[in-house]
Amino acid sequence: MTSTIIKNGTVVTADLTYAADVRIENGIITQIGQNLAGDEVLDATGCYVMPGGIDPHTHLEMPFMGTYSSDDFESGTRAALSGGTTTVIDFCLPSPNQSLLEALTMWDNKTGKAACDYSFHMAITWWGEQVFNEMAEVVDRGITSFKHFMAYKGALMVDDDEMFSSFSRCADLGALPLVHAENGDVVAAMTQKLLAEGKTGPEAHAFSRPPEVEGEATNRAIMIADMAGVPLYVVHVSCEQAHEAIRRARQKGMRVWGEPLIQHLVLDESEYANPDWDYAARRVMSPPFRDKAHQASLWAGLQAGSLSCVATDHCAFTTAQKRNGIGNFAKIPNGTGGLEDRLSVLWTHGVNTGRLTMNEFVAATSTNIAKILNMYPKKGAVLVGADADLVVWDPARSKTISAKTQQSAIDYNVFEGIAVKGLPRFVLTRGRLSVVEDEMRHAPGHGQFIAREPKNPVNRALSQWKAITAPRAVERTGIPATGV
Ligand SMILES: NC(=O)NCCC(=O)O
Ligand SMILES: [Zn+2]
Ligand SMILES: [Zn+2]
């Protein structure tokens, strides 16, 4: 068996920083120590050896708003690897009344050219006995997280009744519900009002979904999850109102995790004021970019631990696709890219500024989500026995982000012109060297589906606590006879 040694680097994990060499055999880390020797040597002098990034929120080749997102599992996972992300978690979206299992087959069929490992969240887009039953089979197949859209009325949105039913089913199965938290009824009404007033440009997309619609929905989802007795993961937290709801819940001991996006951390609402329609439309996503005060709240949440994971919600549409919404902002496909730039932008704006430690960076980009989704320590760890999904991170390498040099299939980059310092020297996916600085050596088809077990420790603890504290009927004697 051939071995690869990553030599002379500093291992950085979510809780430790230390000098060590790392031996890889058969895709697995088999030894961590001093002065290791092997067949192939990767020199990590001056670099940090970290768990590869895990992006818990991507939409590759997703049918949405009358089109498909333009990065598929080939270009999307190539983009991921180029930036140091070695696992993506995508969303399987059944159509209304479609079987979850049938949708899963469709999504499985998209992944043949994945170059890094992947898993899925299953979306609950409608409710009925069939969905209730199939959720158990979905969990058996290793998909243990279920996404609920509280927005996109008339398309993906579910109501409170459906959400409570699904959350309760998640509790029974030991699965994790996720929410896109925006009040879809209010967004729909505000959208109609804005259009009627003639406000049709991309900036009106942001007016139609103010922070309050996100704060309200986040709070509602948290309360519904608590009543269902299940933990909750809130995707793309963009504002103080939503963060405040999560922070308050966590202070009360509720099991809630919040996920800010790298886009919301560094880009703000002024982007929508750009006089160039294309420029503004390319930045249309939900929730929209917010003002600087909201950004500060998100950074504080990462520092304080009230927000847990930085994702991208990578859902990339070309300029031509965005132009579907000329004259009506509600038809601009919602979504932005970010998969290949997440780590370098977070490192530059987080670690290089002192907002985050290197260990917090690893936690927010890899380890925390591996634990939440029950993939740890197979993923998210530099430990003997873990998958050799590793990024050898060179803090001295720099570049200016440009669509001209990106892997993503679209024709622009929302981070265009941003200078980053801190980039991969090497990226390995299950031991396979896939990136050497700017050179891609990835192998389409190398990626494997990661099946996850239900009932992670937090689910189990919460179920136990809810069982102990559940309301109980009062045992009574001497009950008067009825009708007397
Ligand atoms: N976020 C966004 O605008 N598009 C992708 C779908 C979603 O996550 O809401
Ligand atoms: Zn969403
Ligand atoms: Zn999304």
UniProtKB/TrEMBL annotation:
<dbReference type="InterPro" id="IPR050378">
    <property type="entry name" value="Metallo-dep_Hydrolases_sf"/>
</dbReference>
<keyword id="KW-0479">Metal-binding</keyword>
<dbReference type="InterPro" id="IPR011059">
    <property type="entry name" value="Metal-dep_hydrolase_composite"/>
</dbReference>
<dbReference type="GO" id="GO:0004157">
    <property type="term" value="F:dihydropyrimidinase activity"/>
</dbReference>
<comment type="subunit">
    <text>Homotetramer.</text>
</comment>
<dbReference type="InterPro" id="IPR006680">
    <property type="entry name" value="Amidohydro-rel"/>
</dbReference>
<dbReference type="Pfam" id="PF01979">
    <property type="entry name" value="Amidohydro_1"/>
</dbReference>
<feature type="modified residue" description="N6-carboxylysine">
    <location>
        <position position="147"/>
    </location>
</feature>
<comment type="similarity">
    <text>Belongs to the metallo-dependent hydrolases superfamily. Hydantoinase/dihydropyrimidinase family.</text>
</comment>
<comment type="function">
    <text>Catalyzes the hydrolysis of dihydropyrimidines and of the structurally related DL-5-mono-substituted hydantoins, to produce N-carbamoyl-D-amino acids.</text>
</comment>
<feature type="domain" description="Amidohydrolase-related">
    <location>
        <begin position="48"/>
        <end position="431"/>
    </location>
</feature>
<keyword id="KW-0378">Hydrolase</keyword>
<dbReference type="InterPro" id="IPR011778">
    <property type="entry name" value="Hydantoinase/dihydroPyrase"/>
</dbReference>
<dbReference type="InterPro" id="IPR032466">
    <property type="entry name" value="Metal_Hydrolase"/>
</dbReference>
<dbReference type="GO" id="GO:0046872">
    <property type="term" value="F:metal ion binding"/>
</dbReference>
<keyword id="KW-0862">Zinc</keyword>
<dbReference type="GO" id="GO:0072527">
    <property type="term" value="P:pyrimidine-containing compound metabolic process"/>
</dbReference>
<dbReference type="GO" id="GO:0005829">
    <property type="term" value="C:cytosol"/>
</dbReference>
<dbReference type="GO" id="GO:0055086">
    <property type="term" value="P:nucleobase-containing small molecule metabolic process"/>
</dbReference>
<protein>
    <recommendedName>
        <fullName>D-hydantoinase/dihydropyrimidinase</fullName>
        <ecNumber>3.5.2.2</ecNumber>
    </recommendedName>
</protein>
